[in-house]
Amino acid sequence: MTVKRVLLAAALALTASTAGTAEASILTLPAASPSPEDTSTPESPTTTASPIGPGCASIEDSLSNIADQPVGTALSQVPELSMLSQAVKKAGLENKLNSAQDITVFAPSNEAFEAIPPDARDKVMADKQALTKVLSYHVVEGKKAPADLEGATLKNMLGGELTVKGSGEDLTINNAKMVCGDVPTSNATVYIVDKVLMPQ
To answer: Of the candidates 174, 192, 195, which has an alpha carbon nearest to the alpha carbon of residue 183?
Structure first.
């Protein structure tokens, strides 16, 4: 069976099995709480580490503009993530991502979406529950630094597991390689990956 047929079968199976699962996924992200009034002396700003990965250089300019933006909005500012941003908006999840508190997003690149056969991709994009399920699979709680990911098994917002192998710039999340990671936004850390992670 060809890779495209495997992807098509996975996407079609995903669409058929979404009932009742999407609502219990990314829709339950922990919302940011209002900050209590702070009367303490402000701390000095900390230095943020630069993003790492073989693909960072080509998108460096767009990444530098999103550190102060919430992740749902930030995705739309990175050309390489335009298809993911479109998917987030179609699922109605941009505001939910923006209001989430301290999360990590494994963000499939445009090339990752383009690797899925068009008919399967269009079918999932047109199904809000299926799309929410897929997107939830890419989000975990907590802002994860690269050192936190090495050898880790992470529980995503769908309740599934993501297995991380490798270290440094050579990280693999399930079967997806990191293209550029440790990208900060105001409420999330983003790792751009080269494949769409499909729920098992």
So the answer is: 192
Please name the residues in contact with 151: beta carbons below 8 A apart, sequence gap of 6 or more.
Answer: 164, 165
User: What is the signed CA dihedral for 159, 165, 168, 170, rounded to 10 degrees?
Assistant: -110
- Summarised one tens digit per residue, pLDDT across range 108-118 is 999 999 999 99
Q: What domains can be seen in the chain, in order of their start residue?
A: 3-15+53-193 (2.30.180.10)
> What are the tens digits of pLDDT across the range 21-38?
444 455 566 665 554 554
Token code pair at residue 79: 């050309």
Quote the CA–CA distance of 80 and 188 in Å, as a whole number: 18
pTM over 0.90: no
